Structures are given as C-alpha cells and as structure tokens.
C-alpha cells in the first residue's frame, strides 16, 4: 500500500505593496476589519540584523529603507503591507491574462455593505454583484479595488461551499 505524504498546506500571509502605508493600514483595518498586529515601522538596509539581511536577500541591493506593517484577518491570515519610498505609486494595469497573481479574495456575507464601505473610502466596484447559482444557492461575488488600485474579490460564502456539488441543493 502506498501512503500519500502530500497534504494541503495552509495559507500564511500575503504581501501587498502600497503607496502610503498609513492610508493602507487605515483602509484595511477600518474597512476590512483586519487587526493591526504591528503598526507601520521602518526597515533599513543593514546586514548586521536578521530582518535587514533577510530583506537584502529578497530585495537585493537597490534599496535603502522601506516601511512595513502587519495585519491579520479574523481567521489568522497575515497581511503584510510594504511601502517603498522610490517605487511607482500606482498599481500596475489590471491584466489577468498575464502570468502572476492577479487578485485575492475575502469573504463577507453582507457583500453590499462591504462594497458601500469600500466606495466610501475611495475604492471602486469593478462589476455588478453576481450570483453564482441564481435561484439555487445564495452565493454572490464581486470584484472591487482598494483606493490604491489593488484588485480583489468578495465572496459571500466559503470557497468550499461555492464550488462543492450538493451544497444548498
């Protein structure tokens, strides 16, 4: 008998580069309700500290300092916000057809209220709210943008329920 030693890995965090760390912390904590677990702080390029050396390993030598903040969702997923002083201060053009990460998704049963709050903080609604299974299952979704142009999606129900057969049938 062969034992499959592969198992599903859990999601730890996502890193998002933003133009203004304080505005991003305000948006994501006040609109999304994410917990601030480390307020914005500066990281300097220095090889004699662990964090400095890690950042040199990741970012190379073409930087001197940046700001970072850490938030967490209700289910413990980390949101790592970065702001680099010399980076481009606008999101790249939305192009889901190119290789790479093109969105993340959050879950909120009150999708209309969340979208209204996103809009009131300067974000955008990219499409109408859509139902996955009209008249069969109460699953809704919508793509939005934060005030910095970062695209994300909202689901009303869990990923498993949305895509499993038989749920709410």
TrEMBL record:
Residues 10-157 form the VOC domain. Keywords: Metal-binding. The keyword Metal-binding applies. This is VOC family protein. It comes from Flagellimonas profundi. The lineage of its organism: Bacteria, Pseudomonadati, Bacteroidota, Flavobacteriia, Flavobacteriales.
